[in-house]
Amino acid sequence: MHKYILRRLLLLIPVMLGVSFIVFTMMYFTPGDPARIMLGESAPEADVQRLRDDLGLNDPFFIQYGRYVKNAVVNQDMGRSYITKRPVFDEIAARFPNTLKLASMGVLIAVVIGVPIGIISATRQYSLFDNISMVVALIGVSMPNFWQGLLLIILFSINLAWLPSSGFDTWKHMILPAVTLGTSSAAIITRMTRSSMLEVVRQDYIRTARAKGQKESVVINQHALKNALIPVITVIGLQFGYLLGGAVLTESIFGISGVGRLMVDSIKSRDMLVVQGGVLFIAVTFSIVNLGVDILYSFVDPRIKSQYK
Amino acid sequence: MKKRFLVLLSLMLIFSLVAVGCGSNETETPVAEEPSETPSETPVDSEPSTDPVKDTLIVGQGADAKSLDPHATNDQPSSRVSKQIYETLVNQNEAMELEPGLAESWTQIDELTYEFKLKEGVLFHNGEELKASDVKFTILRALESSHIGHIVGPIDGEKVEVIDDYTIRISTKDPFAPLIAHFAHTAMGILNEKAVTEAGEDYGQNPVGTGPFKFVSWINGDKIDLERFEEYHGEPAKVKFVTIRNLSDNTTRTIELESGGVDIAYDIQPSDVARVEENSELTLLRDMNLSTTYVGFNTQKAPYDNVLVRQAINYVLDMETIVDVVYEGVGAPSNGPLGPNVWASNQDLEQYGFNIEKAKELMKEAGYENGFKTTIWTNDNQQRMDIAEIAQNQLKEIGIEAEVKVVEWGAYLDGTANGEHDMFILGWVTVTGDPDYGLYALFHSSQHGAAGNRTFYSNDRVDQLLDEARVSADPAVREAAYKEAQKIIRDEAPWIFTWSGENLAGTRANVKGFSQHPAGHHKLSGVYFE
User: Fold this and answer.
1) Which of A201, B61, B211, B214 is a Cys-bridge partner for B125, taking CB atoms 3.0 to 4.6 Å apart?
2) Gap between the Cα atoms of B433 and B341, Å rounded
3) Which tens digit of pLDDT belongs to each residue from B409-425?
């Protein structure tokens, strides 16, 4: 198992090299001169050229990329933002805690809502509860986050004045954004839990368990649920990884300074080193979350554990 | 079995708790850096109106500052913060009049040289006294900056001369009449040499000025905290703390104003005007600013090399409708290249107005009776896209089939600089309030392309007038030259003169003493709560 984890972590190195190369290439060939964007339409060409020189943008592609990799590997320096002149690492580190909190709360809410409803729906397929929860889940999946967020703000911040509408200082600030994120993930998790459970409860061994005269709650919770969990965990992991990449719309609506907004702003302003650092960071967190999910599998299903060598 | 499952569940729980836990620890650090006396404002907990000792002014704007080093950026959100921290040699007040700032007085010694007398006893936030050497240091550093080099560009770096601690002489390479107005630009805030040298690359996050507020802390992407500078040389600021929050979502910013999360919200959107106006707890401030939005023609490309076609299009677009529909009545249709707040702007120019018959006549005269095909470029700015769409429809009236091409901002700036476009929509802010800033780069034939003249417009008489007004020391001569140039530009129509902008800010009703500067960077030192 340890070897397996170590191997997976080592695999991150080629992943990072590949990601950095792809991102660098894409940013390099995206039309729009970073220096011109930074200086705006009113700056004279001479100033733009001077800034291009300062930033090393006039060097050929491979020299720029080589310099980036060399700095990152040899000096552990991801460079400074073209725009704020802050170290890229600081830019991301300053925002990641907010994103992590938001994503964790969101996923927690999603799991707490989604898994139980999915189980109940599956055990009472086509019942009123099932139908209602599936419709609600469908609405949850389809409802755009920004719209739901605004509705929540209007209700809880303006009309009822219970919760603040933006910022991220106290737990009160986190409720609305976490609910906004959590409910849409919850809908996906509900549907996944339900379909996975439905598949499992039709298996022979469930029929056997029932035939033995086992209590229904034991059949569901011990025999069925564990086997149904694998795809559910996958979805939860994907959702969590995805949210760690930043929930741009939710962050914007609630005025949260997170990784998502940083990335969007940086892409718009062609702040290449921040985009580069940010994508690498997201790729690594995503890989680590995936690894975590794979490890979780082995707890759920001992057969899988034996494959991790 | 059951045990395993419990283990799994608890693992999941621990994982989420750890994630939440370590998250909150990390963010507490920057908060803890704030001085303990800063009251943390939680809008819901403390109703602003019932709080007897409210001494923190919270302002919301649409983006975070980029850097508080005035030489490292030239963007509005940063200027709005820098304005509170730094001061310039010359002030430009809300009526756009130039008045003494850090310089008590100035005299023009010859056509190239000005002498500035500095106010004595002015302290920087780090305790250093303002000396002429700081001014020299600032100017030389600004000349090196690619962000604001063009604002000080006319100055001759070799001829910045410190006469004594409080006297400095500054010369330009060529006569440059708008120089004093350039010294009032927020980018020309005077820096302290020692502070800049000590902070090195991190100066942008550790600004030191002479202004009424000093910098306290910056939570990256979120907010900047300022505190009243008690040793300020002028009238001290009325509130003790200022927090400038980054609320990029326009709706959120208005909602924060409504719910009391901010005391002042900048850049209220036209669609929110009614909401703010109708709310008795809020006040909406509306003032014409220095910006203009225009639809430009590529005047070197057929058929736009024909002045008749350009005029015809000016007649066929109904600007009143555009202002009503796109800007929901905010701002005004423009009649020429400069807005009303710019000095020597020619407000006698006649708007083209909506006149289809005249447009058809001109098209016929130009030989384009049956119209032609063209493209209108715009970036993904909602209002510009709306203008493009309306223009597309109205152009059909004279047989012009226009395709709207939405181009990403970076590519847009590149493409229009290279002259790849037919028609395009852009804006300009004459931030110094001097017509030189608003005309030279946009219409002088030496400025084609990236320098600003993206219509590639050339007119010898306009060049001559702009050159003349740039160097003349006589305001009357300058005014006459600019007015004539604007008349020619209006008649030759390299632009469709579209919209003069308006600054909209909303304040809570208990906020007093706030007024807007046409350039958009509003002073906060006079603001207080009632």
Assistant:
1) B214
2) 7
3) 878 888 898 899 999 99
Q: Among A165, A257, A299, whose Cβ lies nearest the Cβ of B220?
A: A257
Task: Determine, yes or no, domain membership for A155.
Answer: yes
Q: What is the pLDDT of residue A202?
A: 86
The answer to whether residues B264 and B515 touch, using CB atoms and an 8 Å cutoff, is no
d(CA A224, CA A218): 9
Place of tokens 């320096």: A77
User: What CATH number does residue A212 fall under?
Assistant: 1.10.3720.10
Give bridge partners of residue B224 from the DSSP assignment.
B218, B244
| Chain A hits for B23, Cβ within 8 Å | 97-98, 100-101, 104
Q: Domain range holding A303?
A: 94-308
Q: Do B255 and A165 touch (CB under 8 A)?
A: yes
Give the rounded distance of the alpha carbon of B398 from its chain centre.
Answer: 36
Please give the pLDDT value at position B375: 95
Q: What percent of chain B is modeled with pLDDT above 70?
A: 90
Query: What does pLDDT average to in each consecutive run of 10 residues of chain A (309 residues)?
Result: 83 87 86 79 78 86 88 83 86 88 90 89 85 85 83 85 80 87 87 89 86 85 83 88 81 84 84 88 88 84 74
Query: A-chain residues within 8 Å CB-CB of B218?
Result: none
Same domain, residue pair A130 and A214: yes
Task: Count the Cβ atoms, other than its own, within 10 Å of residue B362.
Answer: 23
- Nearest CA distance, B296 vs chain A (angstrom): 14
The answer to whether B261 contacts A165, with C-beta atoms less than 8 Å apart, is yes
* C-alpha to C-alpha distance for B516 and B505, rounded to whole angstroms: 8
Local confidence band at B233 (pLDDT 50, 70, 90 cut-offs): very high
Task: Indicate if A133 and A221 belong to the same structural domain.
Answer: yes
Letter for the amino acid at B422? Answer: D
What are the pLDDT digits (tens) for B7-63? Answer: 444 444 444 444 433 433 333 333 333 333 334 444 444 444 445 568 999 999 998
Looking at the domain assignment, is residue A88 inside a domain?
no
Residues A276 and A140 in one domain: yes
ipTM for the predicted complex comes to 0.73
Same domain, A103 and A50: no
Residue after which a domain boundary falls, among A41, A74, A107: A74
Is residue A80 in some structural domain? Answer: no
> Which residue's structure tokens are 């006149």?
B355
Mean pLDDT of B371-398: 92
Question: What confidence tier does B4 reach under pLDDT thresholds 50, 70, 90?
Answer: low
Q: How are beta strands B264-266 and B56-61 bridged, if at all?
A: parallel
Peptide bond into B77 cis (omega under 30): no
| pLDDT tens, residue by residue, B465-474 | 999 999 988 8
Residue A86 located in a structural domain? no
The domain boundary, picked from A42, A74, A106, lies at A74
Residues B261-287, mean pLDDT to the nearest whole number: 93
Check whether residue A178 and residue A47 sit in a common domain: no
In DSSP terms, B242 is beta-bridged to: B57, B226
Same domain? A212 vs A107: yes
Alpha-carbon distance A225 to nearest alpha carbon in chain B (angstroms): 10
| Range B275-297 average pLDDT | 94
Q: Are A162 and A289 in a shared domain?
A: yes
Number of domains in chain A: 2
Same-domain status, A135 and A263:
yes
- Indicate if the pLDDT at residue B429 is higher than 80: yes
